[in-house]
Amino acid sequence: MKLEISVHALKLKNVAGAFKGTSDPFAILTQVAATPGTQPNVLGKTEVIKNNLNPHWVKVFYIDYELGIPIKVAVNIFDEVTKGDNKGMGSAVFDIGECLGARGNVKAKKLRKGGTVFLSARKAQGSGLMRLQLKGANLKNVEGMFSKSDPFFELSKKVSNAGGLTWDNVHRSPVVKNNLNPAWETTIIELSTLCDGDFDMPIQVSVFDHESSGKHKAMGKFETTVNGFIQAAKNGSTFDLLQKGKAVGSISVVKAEVSGVAGVEDVAEQMKNTSIAPITAVSSSVLSSGSPNFVDYTAGGCAINVIVAIDFTGSNGDPRQPGTLHYLSSERNDYEKAIAAIVSVLAKYDSDQSFPVYGFGAKYAGEVRHCFQCGPQEEVKGVSGVLDAYHKVFASGLVMSGPTVFTEVIETAAAKAQSSLDMAQQRGSQTYTVLLILTDGAVSDAHATARCLDQASDAPLSVVIVGVGNADFSSMQFLDDAAGPGKRDIAQFVEFNKHKHNSASLTSETLKEVPTQLTKYFLSHGIAPLPPLQRTDSILQIDDDDDEEEIDLTLDIGEDEIVVSGGGSSFVDGFNASR
Q1: pTM for this one?
Q2: DSSP 8-state symbol, 16
Q3: Span 263-285, pLDDT tens digits
Q4: 3 has which bridge partners?
Q5: Which of 89, 284, 524, 545 has the most neighbouring CB atoms within 10 Å?
Q6: Where is the VWFA domain (predicted)?
Q7: 56, 98, 96: which is closest to 77 by C-alpha?
Q8: 469-500 b/e (C-beta count within 10 Å ≥ 16 → b)
Q9: Which domains does the chain have, with CATH numbers?
């Protein structure tokens, strides 16, 4: 799924120097190498904001995101120096998964040099580009008697925010100096940024007189839509620039062209051999991205609950013997590695970090139990709590037994998943549950397991099963096709050994179907995403970057290109971690 990310900062340290005024900050965003075989990729550079220690950059960047694949973005902030080297103002690294799991899809980091940087991530809606050129005429001079204004314009779209609708600045034009009839250069802007793919979304055009102090003077504004721009360019009509209800100039649309959008391309093809310009108003229904996706639900606060179930059948071997699957030593065994890797990804979407841990296939007091609680607590906190509950089972008097039966664990998870969603909806929120089953062998009754999964498909549940060890798991492939006619597929089976040297590969393969499974569940039950959760900078929890990993990243900043000349890797394979 494609995401758009943006950044802003507060209370940056002024590094301009004595008697040199206030810093002119800009930011460079780099997707660091977080998996083996990848290279750091510079996403781009924001605009420079003059004399401002609280910059809100309007530049938007795009990345592809897949649940289970770690994506980290480094934000390096600099003070632009016209003659000389730019001065560093601070840097931070953001995990995009953590941003998506945070309230409002925003994370904040304190900078060691002073100040706080914020990164927000959200679903990119719509596709294609708009080429827009505006021209002003007879603008009112707000500069004073002896000089002329230096106009630039901003584009803002109307978005839902705390307390109602508000304008979100998405583009800022270059400045035209000393000119009350400015012809701004053509700008190219992503339609997902400008209007979320909706050609009828309100857009506000605001014109300002640029001031070197950063305190720009308003020159007027008007509202329109993408379709309004297109029609104005086609018909030659103009927009009145308004200030306190009075016209203070006019704005004409020299160019308004869209490309890369289904529907618009078809119209252009039909009209290319006619004398009519290939520009037309387009219904927003043609352009809408349609159904909601995983990001829409998490943006609305849908929590991902995690349940872990661990195989304690006798085929795992004597846990006291080195080389057996449950043997505990200074190095993590394969069960521990899989738990740590997968739960750590899903935990980013669960605000309370509380997880039930179950076992199956062990005998207590002479009776084989196919679903029992691991550890003394009904729910444990975080990945470390899951691992601790797993370790405590071996001091509980169990006898590893058999057969391998998943059905009770799946039924328990399905019931908890439905109960959790029911209670969440009563509170005005949403939940979805992922059951992680770790096993060393094939199930004893494949047909019973398939029936159980089929019945559980009506619950808000995904089941991911990881096969640990060297057993022949070929008979487990039925799990991926266990859904009956018209039923939702909720299961995914992955062999640990095929990914044992790369934790990112394991989490990607294990979790890749969860976003689609979640979306299909909610849509099939007529449950729409909740409105995006909102936050204000003042109440957002801020991470102290002193505890963050160090990223050795060297950037060569040229006029036309930014190059990573050193570092840029944050890859640490969780499989190599010790207990």
Answers
A1: 0.76
A2: S
A3: 444 434 433 443 333 334 444 43
A4: 63, 123
A5: 89
A6: 305-518
A7: 56
A8: bebebeebebbeebeeeeebbbbbbbbbeebe
A9: 2-125+534-543 (2.60.40.150), 129-259 (2.60.40.150), 302-525 (3.40.50.410)
